[in-house]
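Ticket reopened. Same input as before:
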Amino acid sequence: MPAVSKGDGMRGLAVFISDIRNCKSKEAEIKRINKELANIRSKFKGDKALDGYSKKKYVCKLLFIFLLGHDIDFGHMEAVNLLSSNKYTEKQIGYLFISVLVNSNSELIRLINNAIKNDLSSRNPTFMCLALHCIANVGSREMAEAFAGEIPRILVAGDTMDSVKQSAALCLLRLYKASPDLVLMGEWTSRVVHLLNDQHMGVVTAAISLITCLSSKNPDEFKTCVSLAVSRLSRIVSSASTDLQDYTYYFVPAPWLSCKLLRLLQCYPPPEDGAVKGRLVECLETILNKAQEPPKSKKVQHSNAKNAILFEAISLIIHYDSEPNLLVRACNQLGQFLQHRETNLRYLALESMCTLASSEFSHEAVKTHIETVINALKTERDVSVRQRAADLLYAMCDRSNAKQIVAEMLSYLETADYSIREEMVLKVAILAEKYAVDYSWYVDTILNLIRIAGDYVSEEVWYRVIQIVINRDDVQGYAAKTVFEALQAPACHENMVKVGGYILGEFGNLIAGDPRSSPLVQFNLLHSKFHLCSVPTRALLLSAYIKFINLFPETKATIQEVLRSDSQIRNSDVELQQRAVEYLKLSSIASTDVLATVLEEMPPFPERESSILAKLKKKKGPGAVSVELEDGKERGELNGGGDRGGDAAIAASNASTPSPSADLLGLRSTAPVSGTTPSAGSLLVDVFSEAGPSATSAGVNDDGFLSSAPPTVASEDPAPPLPESDELLNKFVCKNNGVLFENQLLQIGIKSEYRQNLGRMYLFYGNKTSVQFVSFNTTVSCPGELQSQLNVQTKTVEPLVEGGAQVQQVINIECLTDFIDAPLLNIKFRYGGALQNISLKLPVTINKFFQPTEMAAADFFQRWKQLSQPQQEAQKIFKASHGMDTEVLKAKLLGLGTALLENVDPNPENYVCAGVIQTKAQQVGCLLRLEPNAQAQPGEQMYRLTLRSSKDTVSQRVCDLLAEQF
Amino acid sequence: MQFMLLFSRQGKLRLQKWYVPLSDKERKKISRDLVQTILARKPKMCSFLEWRDLKIVYKRYASLYFCCAVEDQDNELITLEIIHRYVELLDKYFGSVCELDIIFNFEKAYFILDEFLLGGEAQETSKKNVLKAIEQADLLQECTFPV
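Engineering reply: fixed in the latest deploy. New output:
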């Protein structure tokens, strides 16, 4: 069939294309194109009306120019004119131009839609198909609006030609994908399903793509397709290779349709009907059997088509995950492919086996191929195949083979392609942590990672090793020794310096006994790296140095000298300079006790999902991380779980991660959103500026209740909470710092900071007398159901508080779910022999876990409306107990922790706020509106406070708390 | 399928078909990136690669590369045979197709593709039926219809 003579040769077009091909340079090509564009423009603008042929030719030239990569900004109208030509060839070119150069000009769209409408109603199948192709190619919303109603009718009408049905089905699919809201289900849907039974294989092939897409979105409505699909599949699978005539492809009957049928079945669970299921299992077995038969042709097309069906069948078997026999057979089949000479098959076998590894039925079978997979990792010449092998090793890893797999992956890393190193590093780090039996192996593995692929070790990885070392005291000494040795290398990676600095700063004392790693040796080693490091690492090292001063007083002079040097104290980087100045000052004026408190060893990090895992999940999407076989619970969390849960987990794990600038002291708040704790970063400064806890500033010292002498209950049981403890609690709803309690003997100050669902509270117990308190003991308890809502951890305090001295206690708080009651703080001590026993409510209220949420008025009101169920709202109307000063009100609302939204409420007198309460279990969005009647007489002034949230208990509690504040 | 690209060994794009809405700029960037990536691969390498969140399936026929981007759950091998069937269709229509046929008759290459794939899915897999549709259209070329 000689082509060029076919149909209509457009000579002018051929000449133009030749010209372009003969251009010797890009410039020449552009010159030629510009000449042509000018010519076409003048023709289109000319007085002489162009005939259809010329119009077609010029439109075609424009199309060619566009496809060469040049911009075309005219000719659309001429193309649209061609649509209504009565010559097929002109119409066809018009449609092609419109399909390729979509234009959003509304007048044009109206004209195009009109032309399409005419062709759709022409009853000429060739024209109808052209119009449908155009809709499918453009797929815009405007077209969906115009034709989403009409196309289903064409699709299921009895008298529609097969070829038109095929186009209509896929046209509808495209519209449904682009604008699902415009394609309405209806009477046609059930008839579409029956297209699976159509006699014409082409109609079934086209319709099944539509049905699969619709089924995945509306499974219930389309579930009758399951039995139809099974019987169709069964007929194809059992047919001889000649039965299906032209639908047989290289001796394989209907491979495309077979794959699509198997794919459609993956939208559903295994069929409940025993007969249907039996038939399907039979099909799957037949497909597996055929894989063992000798090939009917040596052509690669034959084996590709056959194996395409096989892989799709295996996907279905994995999707069902309920037929152990089939799963193991699938695994054996894939095992054969692992050593196939076709690279494509090896690649696909590795990929498919990855999902088999996560099934409990086939995990062991997959593991038997470990040597082949390791070999693939070492010898495959194609990086994408090696990547699959690495993925599979990761997926088949469990406790029994972890050491082998991690070792192989580490050795592969030395030569791995740059493109996959970072992911490999994450995987090694995760496996090492997950399957670590002894943590010295874990530490060795991570340090090896840094040594081998330091550049690819992301922050998460080295944060994680530090988290683990801090949380496990059995490995701290080993870690200190190992990093010390690793730092001996003349050139070591900056990440090694970070880990080394952090770990020696915390645990250097554990190896200081050995003269080879004496404090000064450790310091000199770290400091020898200092000048080669970036600013954040230097900052971390400075913090390590100040920690050294605390750990090893004998290094103080040396370190102070370093801090005092111009290159530190006058460093042009403000962060470094500030650290140098503050640390120098801290080391010279603070007493040993203060120093010991400030520079105390880091408290354990709350146990969280590994931040590395979160990162890998982010990289690969949730499905990709399926290693959790041994621990069913964890597996569920990883693979299931909505996006929201995932995000929350990531957020939570970020919260437990040391900050990027790696504050060894953990004082700087990392979250940029922590508007609620403006003083979080300045705690260090406060310790110096105020002798006692932020004492005198707070006005709690009401003599009214102070005069009630300290209770002299002799009992050792915790006293009941003081009657005024609720009132004390209320004082801290909108602030985080202040004096919680004071009597003649004792003053208790509080500083607290909250981030996400975590809080840290510092309690300062000041002995106001000149006599020491003995048996000083404090406990924090969570009564009743609070126990399951809050997780509170305290460190014990020294039992002796000297006269005039002050002790500090740190309390870590984790909010598991929303709560109402407050934890109880009980303080007991003996003063002059008499037992003092005081109980207070610790001011931990649900609003502390607010994260402010800024939003525009429209969003606010939309959400407000969404929360309109009666139980979601709590409201109180109450008299103002203080004045209605705007600034005071605003400060209180900000103190609550929400974002104060300006320009939202139509009435400027009112206040609206929004925030999200972060608990471990869930996040609760909260909206608030406070309406004062400021015009009323003093004494008559009232507020109306309305709270709406997705949880009734939260609305009520926040409303109750806040109503006491005004 | 999200898109199909045909390009020469010199990296010249010969045909591009997009089944998802993308701006002109994005299309150009994607084409550039992919052409580069694929041309850099060696002959014996596997025909599939992960690229962004898509799977790329490609095959070289003489001087032309055929390259399809499919979604995660799509079947690589059957996509490879989609490419082959399209090549067969071009071959049958043009008679031993070569790159020049596609350059000079690019509109035909698009028409044949539209008969075979629509909206990124197979519309008609029978070679006979697709060619019949194209031949019918060719017969209509110069016929004038009453309006």
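The two ends of chain B are 37 Å apart (CA to CA). Chain B touches chain A through 64 residues (CB under 8 Å). Please confirm and we'll close it.
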